Amino acid sequence: MKALVKRTAGPGLELTDVDVPQVGPGEALVQVKQTGICGTDLHIEAWDDWAASHVRAPLVVGHEFSGVVVEIGESVTDVSVGDVVSGEGHLTCGRCRNCRAGRRHLCINTRGIGVQIDGAFAEYVAMPSGNLWVHEHPIGFDVAAIFDPFGNAVHTALTFPMLGEDVLVTGAGPIGILAAMVSHHAGARNVVITDLSDQRLELASRLGVDLALNPRTRTLQDAHDQLGMKEGFDVGLEMSGSPVALRGMIASMTHGGRIAMLGLPSDEISIDFATVVLNMLTIKGIYGREMFETWYAMSVLLQSGLDISGVITDRFDHTEYEQAFATARSGHGGKVIMNWEK
């Protein structure tokens, strides 16, 4: 089969032939239909310091995918051949304290497909059947392929109650925009999103954000004035990893405000903890998805009318992977999808 492989320790990827993975007990083989490019994939393709310290070549990369189950292993009862599925790419041990307590998203022994073990940028991927999410209601393969990042957005946005709240989202990448859409759908009063890319802010505006703001030209005080806000933001969703964005968010929160932080900083951040203490702010780190409550929430959100297809702005065949990665790296569009159907 064809697969996109990190062949050696260094920049670049190679589209090459590898063996179709064998299905063991408790596993299922999925024929991949479409895949999404994640920031993690960009790190691995570029072979930066993070990739060099976390990835061992050779490796089939990729973890955002949708497909159809074509084979099941011994003792598999939770999926069937023909099921349309997405995959939870975090494989947990099932034995640590958090796993045994039902908090699998906090597993200390988590391994990731496409990072520690062979992933989904391939014609077929094998993984534990318990990590597959069966789409019981009709859904396009493109939207199903972005359930992983959609889950990050849902996990972040629904960490704190949204009904009637004023929400600030910093970072209008695909996950930031998805989080803003979820916030609005969950009943937020005002949703403001900030970014330095006017193209992404334009996309966010088209997808229903109340106010998209470039901090180079407008301030958060402008947002307060335009929206008639009398106090600061109730909920903050930090999706950018930017020190400036986080500090600005902390300064703009109301007393008792709550911040969910998904954006991963590249270095340590200095913040004003006096404001955090005196204004009694809550800052909570978010990683991945809750297994599998977030997945349930994702499906219900779509069934209740949330349409996330608009966040997908670019589609390529897998043979055009270099152009697809360049587009994703540009930082100006939404989600980039690669097609693996023959």
From TrEMBL:
Every copy of the Alcohol dehydrogenase-like N-terminal domain together lies at 24-132
Kindly state one GO CC term assigned in the UniProt record.
Answer: cytoplasm
Q: Where does NAD(+) bind?
A: 175, 195, 200, 262-264, 286-287
What general EC class does the enzyme of this chain belong to?
A: oxidoreductase
Named from the GO MF annotations, one term is: L-threonine 3-dehydrogenase activity
**Domain of life of the organism in this record?**
Bacteria
Q: Which reaction does it catalyse?
A: L-threonine + NAD(+) = (2S)-2-amino-3-oxobutanoate + NADH + H(+)
Subunit-structure text: Homotetramer.
Keyword presence, Zinc: yes
- Protein name (record): L-threonine 3-dehydrogenase
Keywords for this entry? Cytoplasm, Metal-binding, NAD, Oxidoreductase, Zinc
Chain residues that bind Zn(2+) 1: 38, 63-64
Q: Which cofactor does it need?
A: Zn(2+)
Q: Which PANTHER family match?
A: L-THREONINE 3-DEHYDROGENASE (PTHR43401)
The record's comment on cofactor binding reads: Binds 2 Zn(2+) ions per subunit.
Report the EC code(s) recorded for this entry.
Answer: 1.1.1.103
Query: Of which family is this protein a member?
Result: Belongs to the zinc-containing alcohol dehydrogenase family.
Report the main location listed first in the record.
cytoplasm
Q: Does the keyword Oxidoreductase apply?
A: yes
What's this protein's function?
A: Catalyzes the NAD(+)-dependent oxidation of L-threonine to 2-amino-3-ketobutyrate.
Spell out the catalytic residues. 40, 43
Pathway terms, separated by semicolons: Amino-acid degradation; L-threonine degradation via oxydo-reductase pathway; glycine from L-threonine: step 1/2
Q: Where in the cell is it found?
A: Cytoplasm
- Domain (Alcohol dehydrogenase-like C-terminal) spans 174-302
Q: Where is this site: Important for catalytic activity for the proton relay mechanism but does not participate directly in the coordination of zinc atom?
A: 148
Q: What is the primary gene name for this protein?
A: tdh
Q: Which BP terms does GO give this entry? A: L-threonine catabolic process to glycine
Species per Swiss-Prot/TrEMBL record: Microlunatus elymi
